[in-house]
Amino acid sequence: MSYSCALQKPILLQGHERSITQIKYNREGDLIFSVAKDTVANVWYSVNGERLGTYNGHTGALWCVDCDWDTKNVLTGSADNSCRLWDCETGKQLAMLNTSSAVRTCGFDFSGNIIMFSTDKQMGYQCFLNYFDLRDPQQIEDNQPYLTVPCAESKITSAVWGPLGEFVIAGHENGEINQFSAKSGEVLKKVKEHNKQINDIQTSVDLTMVITASKDCSSKLFDSTTLDHIKSFKTERPVNSAAISPIMDHVVMGGGQEAMEVTTTSTRIGKFEARFFHAAYEEEFGRVKGHFGPINCVAFHPDGKSYSSGGEDGYTRIHHFDPQYFDFELEA
Amino acid sequence: MDSLTTEELLGDLLREKPQEADGIDSVVVVDNVPQVGPERLEKLKNVIHKIFSKFGKITNEFYPTVDGPEGLTKGYIFLEYGAPTQALEAVKNADGYKLDKQHTFRVNVFTDFDKYMSISDEWETPEKQPFKDFGNMRHWMEDPDCRDQYSVIYESGERTAIFNNDAKDPIVSEERARWTETYVRWSPKGTYLATFHQRGIALWGGEKFKQIQRFSHQGVSLIDFSPCERYVVTFSPLMDTKEDPQAIIIWDILTGQKKRGFHCESSAHWPIFKWSHDGKFFARMTQDTLSIYETPSMGLLDKKSLKISGIKDFSWSPGDNIIAFWVPEDKDIPARVTLMQLPSRQEIRVRNLFNVVDCKLHWQRQGDYLCVKVDRTPKGTQGVVTNFEIFRMREKQVPVDVSIIAFAWEPNGSKFAVLHGESPRINASFYHVKNNGKIELIKMFDKQQANSIFWSPQGQFMVLAGLRSMNGALAFVDTSDCTMMNMVEHYMASDVEWDPTGRYLVTSVSWWSHKVDNAYWLWTFQGRLLQKNNKDRFCQLLWRPRPATLLTQDSIKVIKKDLKKYSKIFEQKDRLSQSKASRELVDKRRSMMEDYRTYREAALQQHHEQKIARLQLRGGVDTDELDSNTDDWEEETIEFFINEEIIPLGE
Fold it and tell me: A184: domain CATH number?
């Protein structure tokens, strides 16, 4: 490893009292949404870290957040057994969809018209993948998804939409990845390249690829349509989140274990690092320190000139790359 | 014995007794009995009776005599017991009994004679076993780049691999799943790798690590090799029975034969049998006894053990066939350390010690020095004080006073290192034993984070390590001038292993002691980090030992003189291999990039073809690029507070 990412001073977002569970940029990158275990959903200006507002209403830990392509609506999923739709600008709650168990993943499709969310296997209830069409207000009113897919075997732990809204790519607790059709609910494709839980799946900005982050200490790159396994990135710690750079052949990964899972951890400050790998060579080339606990979520700004990480410590850090980052090349 | 017929042998007995097979099983033949005439026969019979009736009631006896005027007994007799077990007892105990200078009884059960008599006269040549060629057993020593090998157990024991140590990256030589069920051991000269299994151990070797030999010992848990690699000793807590001692078995490695079995009460101080440096003797200590055996017969030296009342510990000199042992105080007799020469059993040195609480014996690698660490409670005090009694095997001994945590001799030299004091004030002191016998303190480093001493096997260099609870602090020292070369850390390191040449050091975090960050790190002898090797649930790394050098002292001197010449050649070789590795890496990267680009092109092609679909889904808005729909953009000017500067206006 020969490059230590020397960055400009990061912008620190302090607005959560408990660990961050997910962060997301909107399509244009001017906003960052952050959700945490403290029941709070925040939205910030990414340029200077100023908080724009909060979406109030959830009564339990928030697990997921998404924003539609037009930055009109926001979707959140919570352990309070609800998935809620919000007006991005005003913060008004537009819909509340009650479920029988915690909502673990959620997202808008490419068009912004269809939403999906999955529920946990809990309290006797199976894991379900639900689809609602927002153009049909009756579905929302009656809390009746037009399609609900049960997942009997291994519960869904992370999910994203495919390129044209035809299917959802879901990662499961056992390491499997399945494509669930948004029309019929059938499994179109499945692969098992990981052998432990998939903690995160994210798409490339053009939606052609997805990257997975797994408890098996590796991250893998797949083609979204064929689910062909393209690349693997190995570390010695469980990976909680991974993202693909929009402009460079880079991926970023964040991870670590929760304090209670490890009997003794290094008490050295800022031990948890975000790691940068070259996407084609599969080699690690840089690390960024700074978080005081495991990193739970990473995301690139859509313009690829900065990235953010949300941690167990409740902080979200926005890092802008310095010119060295873009010039850096591994000898080839 | 001349040929005898059954009639001749047993005529009387056969006539007297009906055909009962049991009778014969209770009969013993005693040979080397004095030949006496009739007038002394009665006396002879009484003597025989006295000796042999110890084993059971003698129901019948027969003293065959020579035909002729003197009527001397033939020199062998037959005795019958009440039961076959008594006959066996007689054989066990009376065989080898020395009646007098000329007569040592040989006792056998009669049935054995029958067995040997009925061996076919025709000799059948035993079938020729095909020669098992394991190849060059020293193959690893011929590596052109002189890479040493080491074994690694990881995935919590599921996988074992053998690597060649290259400064750049370890090179896999062999890798197998479930090669061993618990752990592995190398033989002392590196020839064999031993693996453990429920049913026994297996030895592997040669270029391809083929299975050389298998030893069946159910439930084996511990093993030990003789220094010459001729024998292997296995221990299993399961296999001991009264009749058949099987707890410890000594095997001949080349033939695979079981040489001898022994009882064992407890395996607490393994190895129970300690070998002399040349493998000629092995010994063990039991209550008040030191038993020394010789090879290859596996019999007790001089047919008896040594009675040493109170013996607490012993150890062999690594250089000579000398045993050091110590005995604690006994009433008026002070504690003593004794050095005994084998096989003569001559006591060549005895030293009395007073008020002793405990002793530990530390031999220097070459056997030049023995250090006895003596814990004493001097009269009139309550605390424990530690002395060193240094025996210079070639001269006199001199005591040294200090209280310590760890002690270690320099392997090839005459220095030793000592860790003493109490945390956090732990000191490391280096001493030199001079030619005149005086011990000189060279240097002391204070406030060290260390609990273990690791000398390079070649001497001069060493590492002071603070393992486990001391968080892996490492101090690399050059003892030629006692300078600290480097102070580094391998967080939570549990083990330190020098390679056999003293060029490299491995520190590791074993899964057996710490469940995260399991890895082994490679350092140079000066403390420069070369590699960090993470291995899933890494358990253990062991360097493969090297056999002794084949060079004479003179050839070594010559090589050292010409070192500059060799250095040049090696440096050039290193540079070439560096650039070769770079080239290999570069080539690998090129091909990976090509594959990636090919994939990306195809994916982007498909992406392009889906453009219309995308436009439709977003109501005609082109969002493919961030700036694809600039018409929609609004320009907004926002002011941010950046900085405050106070500029004093000039007067």
Answer: 2.130.10.10
